[in-house]
Amino acid sequence: MYTFEQSQKIPASIEQVWDFISSPANLKNITPPYMGFDVITPNLPDKMYEGMIIQYYVSPLAGIKMRWVTEITHIKEMEYFVDMQQKGPYKFWHHQHHLQKIDGGVLMHDIVNYMPPFYFIGQIANKIIIQKKLNEIFDFRRNKMEEVFGKF
Description:
The chain has two helices and seven strands, in the order βαββββββα. By secondary structure, the protein is α+β, with helices and mostly antiparallel strands. It has a single domain (2-149), classed as Alpha-D-Glucose-1,6-Bisphosphate, Chain A, domain 4, CATH 3.30.530. The protein has a seven-stranded antiparallel β-sheet, with helices on one face. Strand 3 (53-58) and strand 4 form a beta hairpin. The longest helix has 31 residues, at 119-149. It is globular and about 45 Å long. The protein starts with a strand and ends with a helix.
């Protein structure tokens, strides 16, 4: 099991940040284009809710499209939500999205616990590819959040 964490300070109200990150429509906007991220769940609501299933295609490696299915397992309005992979490229994926009011804005903190597939091959892939890709994806998201809300 591996853990990836990242924090970002955002100069906006907690309501503004919550409205943005809890909207399934914004998932594609904060994912790098090379990931080929396409939501395929029809008629998604404006806001996530507990038990919500979101299906999408993603190309995490070499342009190979994979179906990824996540479930929103926990939500505490304006504080956090958790998505968990039900089907996808990882053996296990659990992603916590936390928000906290701070002076001048919001601290957004992500905690991802994950296990790559294929045991020791997955361990090697994690060191060579996965950790780097997670950093790239979250750096892209950091930049997109700064485009939307400004730099702290």
